[in-house]
Every structure is written in structure tokens, then in C-alpha cells.
Amino acid sequence: MKNLKDNGLLVLCNCPDRGMAVQLANQLLVQKLAACVNVMPEMLSMYFWEGKQETATEVALQIKTVQRLYSEVERLIISMHPYQLPEIIAIPIVDGLPAYLQWIREQTGN
């Protein structure tokens, strides 16, 4: 039976600009915390913060990693991110092309 900690994980994180997004993506890759990080085009985010409606441009990251590395990914994001409360959402990868999922495991040390 496969170890659940080796299951693929998609982590989503928004950054205030492309420069920050690229720096964060690079560190995730250099530290082998992710197999791949997609840096998305700039988007408009609308949300409530401290009782006020806000609008900001942000750049989204899609981080492909494994469950066992989640806490390290979270720590790195928090250490580098300028937001007081960065978006960090992890979505289990429940299925996918087996060879691609194996590639994620291999690139993150399995």
C-alpha cells in the first residue's frame, strides 16, 4: 500500500506581484519542496479585510508537491510572504496521470 504522505498535493497561494511570485517559486524549487510551480498571469482579487471591501492585483501560484512536505511549504511561504495573512490552500490530488504523479514524487525526493 502506498504511503499517504507521498500523495500529490496542489497548494494555491496568491502573491502581491510577479517578482514576489517568482522569488517564492524559485525557492520552492531550489529547496525541492515542489516539483513544479505555475506562476499565473496577474488577476484582480476582491475581498473583505478588516471590515472593508478591498480590490488588489495579485499573481497566483499553483504549487505541485506531496503531502509530507506541506508543513515545510507553508513555513517557507509564511517566511517570505509580505502579507499578514497569506492565502495558502492545499488541495489533495486524488487522481491523475500516474507517470506525472510519479514525477512529482521523484522531484520532491521520493
From TrEMBL:
- InterPro entries per record: Ion_tolerance_CutA, N-reg_PII-like_a/b, N-reg_PII/ATP_PRibTrfase_C
A Pfam match: CutA1
**Which PANTHER family does the entry link to?**
DIVALENT CATION TOLERANCE CUTA-RELATED (PTHR23419), FI09726P (PTHR23419:SF8)
Describe the family membership recorded for this protein in Swiss-Prot or TrEMBL. Answer: Belongs to the CutA family.
State the protein's name. Divalent-cation tolerance protein CutA
This protein's species is Undibacterium griseum
